[in-house]
Amino acid sequence: MSEDRGERSPLDRERAAQPVATAQVLSTSAGETRRLGRCLGALLRPGDLLFLVGPFGAGKTTLTQGIAQAFGIRESVTSPSFTLVNEYRAADRRRGPVLYHIDLFRIGGAAEAFDLGLEEYVGRAAVCVVEWPEPATDIFPGDRLEIKMAYLGDTGRTWQLIGRGTRYVELVRQFAEQCAPMTMDGK
Ligand SMILES: Nc1ncnc2c1ncn2[C@@H]1O[C@H](COP(=O)(O)OP(=O)(O)O)[C@@H](O)[C@H]1O
Ligand SMILES: [Mg+2]
């Protein structure tokens, strides 16, 4: 047992007060992952933050491609290899927000992540999608949508959506209703 005498840090208190909603989603093909991305993209608003968590090939970039399509981005979205942040803009400015696609796979740890000034990208008139967010978990705002992806056979993927904070609790609800009607509510 740790020596927890009920004293909690301000961050712990913020987390305890934060509403959370979860949902489970199944995608059985890359095409379905892209469709779910397009549907999610249509629900996103400037300032939104998404974490995509999962092993190689889970579909993080495929999902981001769907989101980009919903924003009217014509450029093809790829896993950023040497750049940590890719910026995409719709061909027609009225279509959708700017998309920052961030990939922190190569970042060694929290100190290195801290030096990148990542918080600069969040909360502007843009949507931020972060693959491999683990080293920067505490650098980004606590209110966000996390999608945790796991393999289910060759083409199946299961996702756990975790919406943290009022905005993202609502987003999980909308996504479950409008994009993935077979969604099971989590705990
Ligand atoms: N259900 C699925 N969802 C997403 N990708 C799938 C699915 N089934 C097969 N795939 C394939 O898996 C690969 C996913 O790659 P990618 O999106 O780059 O993953 P990540 O960015 O998580 O490493 C693609 O080649 C895609 O065609
Ligand atoms: Mg990727």
Short characterization:
This protein has 187 residues and is an alpha/beta fold.
Q: CATH top level?
A: Alpha Beta
What's the number of domains? 1
Quote the distance from N terminus to C terminus.
Answer: 26 Å
Estimated helix fraction: 25-40%
What is the CA-atom radius of gyration, in angstroms? 17 Å
Shape: globular
- What proportion strand? 25-35%
Please provide the count of β strands.
8
Oligomer: single chain
Q: Would you mind describing this structure in some detail?
A:
This protein has 187 residues and is of the alpha/beta class. The protein has one domain (28-185): P-loop containing nucleotide triphosphate hydrolases (Rossmann fold). It has helices at residues 10-17, 30-43, 60-70, 110-114, 166-178, and strands at 20-27, 49-53, 85-88, 98-103, 126-131, 144-152, 156-164, 184-185. Strands 3-4-5-2-6-7-1-8 form an 8-stranded mixed sheet. The two termini are 26 Å apart. 37% of the residues are buried. The mean pLDDT is 90.
